[in-house]
Amino acid sequence: MSRQLPPLHALRVFEIAARAESLSAAAQELSITHGAVSRQIALLEAWLGQTLFVRQGQRNVATDHARAFAAEISAAFDLMGDAALRFGKAPQTRVVRVNAQTTLAMHWLIARLPAFHTAFPDVQVVVTTSSGADPAFRGGFDVAIRRDPPARPEWQPYERTPLFTERASLVAAPSLLEALPLRRLKDLAKHTFVATQTRVGAWEDWLSVAGVPALRPVRFHRFDHYHVSLQAVMDGLGLGIGCTPTLDRELAAGRLVMPFPDIQADGATYVTLVPRDADKSTPLRDFLTWVHEAARAPVVALTSPARRATSPATRRTRAGSTG
């Protein structure tokens, strides 16, 4: 089937000009004259039958229609660049591009990367983050790490391998518990709960496992993203629901504590996703082996011996092990 494509060079010039919101900036980036940029824009406008830039004062400004078109073109260029990297000659630089959701990158992956670099000093790991579960983000990746990605058709081109399953429990800043101790479950009613819109039902699940499903706090604070909620908890704004092993580092460092460590609810499963048609380079295979071994590594001690001695009695959880 014959494709009706606009002039590709004109598309490239237009995408840069729209992104930079300046014809002069596009000329500088491409090392061509301002007039050459204008001619390419005019060529594309003639092909499309649409005005892409309008004059506002001393500047040429992209129309709303042009900005929307530029976003589509930019994504297409990213896909082409990604395909060239995946199917072209193996690069001299040994790079693994990892895209992870923000909370996992901040609290689990980055803390473990020094161990990877010690084992593989000649491999560069480039980490980008995403706040959603959608695979179609810009820039491409060699491996993505996602939390409970939905079983949708757009995920079929990816090989999915479980990384670890979280266990959810109550977490708090030590300073908060010094000011307002938690000795019994009923003391929860004296506290503020911190929740997140991206993990709906986390509090209800934990309270149900704890045997107090009807308990209500003094107030709720809700945030749009989990990593923001965690920061609020660490700052002492209220109690939160945190997950291991994602928060092992914060628990080991004492930035967070688990007041009732034996009461844990089922959490989500993180998985690695690798494009099925990707060239599985040696650095990528090494990273995948390492990250899965890191996920299976023993969990650090979550509470001090003194804390364990004063913890409430163990309660049965919905998933037997707390590993």
From TrEMBL:
Q: Which UniProt keywords apply?
A: DNA-binding, Transcription, Transcription regulation
Domain of life (superkingdom): Bacteria
Q: Which PROSITE patterns match?
A: HTH_LYSR
What are the HTH lysR-type domain coordinates in residue numbering? 6-63
Name a single GO biological process.
Answer: DNA-templated transcription
Chain residue ranges for the region called Disordered:
303-323
Molecular-function annotations in GO: DNA-binding transcription factor activity; sequence-specific DNA binding
Q: Name the family the entry cites.
A: Belongs to the LysR transcriptional regulatory family.
Extract the PANTHER family matched here.
HTH-TYPE TRANSCRIPTIONAL REGULATOR (PTHR30537), HTH-TYPE TRANSCRIPTIONAL REGULATOR TRPI (PTHR30537:SF74)
Which protein, by its recorded name, is this?
LysR family transcriptional regulator
| Native organism | Pandoraea oxalativorans
